[in-house]
Amino acid sequence: MNISPVLDTCAAEILEVVPQVMRTIKTEMRQRRASGLSVPQFRAMIFVNRQGQGSLVEVAEHLGLTSATTCRIMDELVARQLVLSRPSTIDRRKIVLTLTDEGREVLEKARQGTLDRLEELLAALSAEERAVIFQSMALLRRAFAPHTSEGAG
What is the mean pLDDT of residues 57-71? Predict the structure, then answer.
């Protein structure tokens, strides 16, 4: 496959910059997590929130942990009333995980603090530079949006 030098440079720049941005976001989110929450617990909550509801197996796969370890993590979050665990209405052998109102509040506090920090970092740029970033994010969103097959059912 013959890739143009501009496309190759663009791809290389994304590969270089996106991890730097993600490291900053992860650091800020972790610093703002509720006291007493471990990083795996916090990551599990973020995943469940993003999914709307999730299964123990999905959370374990996301965290890269065994089901037993993930079960202990989720049991602790349930005990702290941050996550609700209930049998699936479709398959009673499966457990459905959702965040409680308190769990969503914990995540929103961390998210808002992270957003405030990113705004501080971006404030050093001019309004025109921030506009370019905003436009670039729209382009990246479009380029990396999940593609659905026509007529897939």
Answer: 94
pLDDT value at position 53?
Answer: 85
Q: Which pairs count as long-range contacts for 112-119, CB under 8 Å and 24+ apart, including other chains?
A: 113/28, 113/31, 113/32, 114/25, 114/28, 114/29, 114/32, 117/28, 118/24, 118/25, 118/28
Domain ranges of the chain: 5-140
Between vectors from CA 30 to CA 27 and to CA 102, what angle results, nearest 5°?
150
Instruction: Please give the CATH topology (third level) of the domain spanning 5-140.
Output: Arc Repressor Mutant, subunit A (1.10.10)
Average pLDDT over residues 94-103: 92
For 119, half-sphere exposure in the C-beta direction (CA atoms, 13 angstrom radius) is 6
Least reliable range by pLDDT among 25-34, 61-70, 80-89: 25-34
User: How far apart, in whole angstroms, are the C-alpha atoms of residue 62 and residue 84?
Assistant: 18
Residue 130 pLDDT > 90, yes or no?
A: yes
Choose among 116, 77, 71, 76: nearest CA to 94: 71
Q: Is 96 helix (H, G, I), strand (E, B) or coil?
A: strand
- Residue 84 near residue 95 (C-beta atoms within 8 A): no
